[in-house]
């Protein structure tokens, strides 16, 4: 496969007796936005660090942009961009100086540096902040600057470790718009996050839980996995008033496998033979009238919750 | 293909901005050494002058008063009061109000005139050996000279049988600042420079910027040299400032070549900055870096010959002193500043410093891991 940009085989990292990453295998093709999801401490950052060549894997192998990250870490460095979880720019330097510094660090000089700088400033709209110290930027703008710095040397792959952690929703959306912009220019993006809505935006997602990669693929394929949609069941959404009261009521109904509140509605997985009327009657008994019931596809959250439960049944912790 | 100093200019550019943009840090780097230098320079003064003296004059004659005057004229003593008994002298000494008490007994003048040995007693507080020794020597000198003069007039000879003609080289006035201040510069420079670089890499580790540097093509040599160079400039400006204070405030003349002095200082500062970098490649946080630098600094204060002569130390301390850059720098400074030594007379100190600097710098380059632990 010529268009595979990142691939790893049985990638494993142990810290003493603790296994942070346990035989993880996946591949990412060129131009995709790969989202690696998982709770804190599940091993996401460790995977990124290994793929960036700054952490030695205990076992397994990985190639990024055609370079073996263990054997040729040095050749890798010019080919990747990396934004670590912590804000990793220099607070004392202005936006402009940070760009200058990272450009030089990657060996850019003169006209080439000026051109790349200009292009990234235009792309990230950092123009008005050029003379501001990085310390005085708000979260969203800091991340823009960090992205611009990471992309100065035109890497084909950009790794972003929780780029949206702690950023307000507006800035978060703008940041994602920027990521799509990069992606449309052919840059492969590897993003870790623990926001489910961000997972929905990715072209490919992997879910990591307790150091293991539980599932990996295109979001729509994941929604249709048999483990997520057991035969003889259906997923429905009930929109009604007093959702918390309703939730308690429908949970007691035989044939309901799981139910959870989702905004102003209840999402539930029930045996296919439970008719809509059964729900209506139960809700009416609880004093809720005129519920709106419709079938839905599982969300990625549903997928991950189901698969996590599945995993725990297979291997009790 | 890959230049060994990849990223050097980038780091240099960044370090200069970071250092110069933060005036507070710069101030705290430059200011304490100057204060330390002035404080140390004044405090470490062995020239004891005007020691408080109480007098118990039981003779009360012209001769007894002359005796007291002669002691005062040496500048070593200053009469601070009169005592009326030996017990009172003892009490004043115990209180620390005087360092010495002089007792001139009632029959002093009578014995003197009768040609018998007249006795004078000096009671010295021996708790500080330096002070006691100086008091004793001065008092001995005064009485001895008096006696010789008296004997000369009685015997009719015009000159004493033996006379010592001393010639004190390099520091003819035997001022202690000349001895101490160059050493103070060595120690003060070490404190400031080691701390500066010991912190710099650790701070990047703490802030997470180091991780960002690790994924870049920056080479280890480029990183270390880029980190070191700005501090080399600051360290040299500091050294020049300290030499100026030494010259103007403490009036220590520079007998030798200034070029040699600055070359030696450059090599020394390079070695110390490398030592600081070495600390910062090992320390995980600023607290550790601080403690590790302290461990390096304390022996330099005690075993480098800065205050105590190394020759009289037990072999173990002598050996510790032999591996400290400060030892060789202080020796080099005293050679050039005080004795006006020429290259053949001090080159070995410079060479040892250069070798130490090279080893320390190479060590930090090779010990620095371009991976996370």
Description:
The complex is a heterodimer of chains A (317) and B (373). Chain A has 317 residues and is an alpha/beta fold. Chain A contains eleven helices and 14 strands. In chain A, the strands form three sheets. Chain A has a six-stranded mixed β-sheet with strand order 6-7-8-3-9-10, with helices on both faces. The relative contact order of chain A is 0.13. Chain B has 373 residues and is mainly alpha-helical. Chain B has 14 helices and four strands. In chain B, strands 2-1-3-4 form a four-stranded mixed β-sheet, sandwiched between helices. The longest helix of chain B has 32 residues. Classes of the chains: A alpha/beta (317), B mainly alpha (373). Chains A and B meet through helix 3 of A and helix 1 and helix 8 of B.
Uncertain segments of chain A are none
| Class derived from helix and strand content of chain B | mainly alpha
Quantity of strands of chain B, as a count:
4
The Rg value of chain A, from CA coordinates, equals 23 Å
Strand content of chain B: 5-15%
Mean pLDDT of chain A: 91
Order of helices and strands of chain A: EEEHEEHEHHHEHEHEEHEHEEHEH
Compute the number of helices of chain B: 14
Question: Compute the gyration radius of chain B: what is it?
Answer: 28 Å
Instruction: Count every beta strand of chain A, where a strand is a DSSP E run of 2 or more residues.
Output: 14
How are the strands ordered across the major sheet of chain A? Answer: 6-7-8-3-9-10
How would you sum up the major sheet of chain A?
Answer: 6 strands, mixed
Name the structural class of chain A.
Answer: alpha/beta
Give the fraction of residues assigned to helices of chain A: 25-40%
Give keywords.
heterodimer; A: 317 residues; alpha/beta; 6-stranded mixed sheet; 4-stranded antiparallel sheet; 11 helices; 28% strand; globular; B: 373 residues; mainly alpha; 4-stranded mixed sheet; 14 helices; 66% helix; elongated
